[in-house]
Amino acid sequence: MLRNIIRSVIHRSNLIASTNNTTNRIKLHVSALRMGDKVDKANLKSRLTPIQYQVTQEKGTERPFTGCYNKTYDPGTYVCIVCEQPLFSSDTKYDSACGWPAFNDVLDAGKVKLSPDTSGVGSNLLLLITQPGRIRTEVTCSQCGAHLGHVFGDGPPPTKKRFCINSASLNFLPKTAED
């Protein structure tokens, strides 16, 4: 009966089940979150490191030059740490010297959501009027809503974009011989 319930949940939620025979526990791993699915914060807190949770769920920022992917240039794909959606290719990664991984493009425009971020000015209308450049553009995963970083208009040609992304919001999948 338990197996039928699990199969039903898996079928309805697009989940993958795996069993650990030594502990006889059933672990459910979200293979892909659809837009609009509620992210289980308790599950994320147990699955992510504190900095990964703070960055992706609380819109935090890791300290510059501390992220594990800042100087990684191996061929491969960068995916969302929360839902594993492919986001960036190593082909578009470059050294911007900003202290965070920088990309000049995303794999597909539909993979990310761009939104105005006024956290740098708060509710100070004078700052909004006199320094409009302080309004940044936040980058989030379009599938699960995880905060990734920000995009700026000072990148290299041809896009002239700099996607400044926290390493804590990414996982790197190296290119394999089959790719």
From TrEMBL:
Keywords: Metal-binding, Oxidoreductase, Zinc. One of its GO terms (biological process) is protein repair. One of its GO terms (molecular function) is peptide-methionine (R)-S-oxide reductase activity. It holds the Pfam family SelR. One of its GO terms (cellular component) is cytoplasm. Its cofactor is Zn(2+). Residues 41-175 form the MsrB domain. Binds 1 zinc ion per subunit. It catalyses: L-methionyl-[protein] + [thioredoxin]-disulfide + H2O = L-methionyl-(R)-S-oxide-[protein] + [thioredoxin]-dithiol. The keyword Cell wall biogenesis/degradation does not apply. InterPro entries: Met_Sox_Rdtase_MsrB (IPR028427), Met_Sox_Rdtase_MsrB_dom (IPR002579), Mss4-like_sf (IPR011057). Its EC number is 1.8.4.12. The keyword Cytoplasm does not apply. It is an enzyme of class 1 (oxidoreductase). Belongs to the MsrB Met sulfoxide reductase family. NCBIfam families: peptide-methionine (R)-S-oxide reductase MsrB (TIGR00357). Methionine-sulfoxide reductase that specifically reduces methionine (R)-sulfoxide back to methionine. While in many cases methionine oxidation is the result of random oxidation following oxidative stress, methionine oxidation is also a post-translational modification that takes place on specific residues. This is Peptide-methionine (R)-S-oxide reductase. It comes from Brassicogethes aeneus.
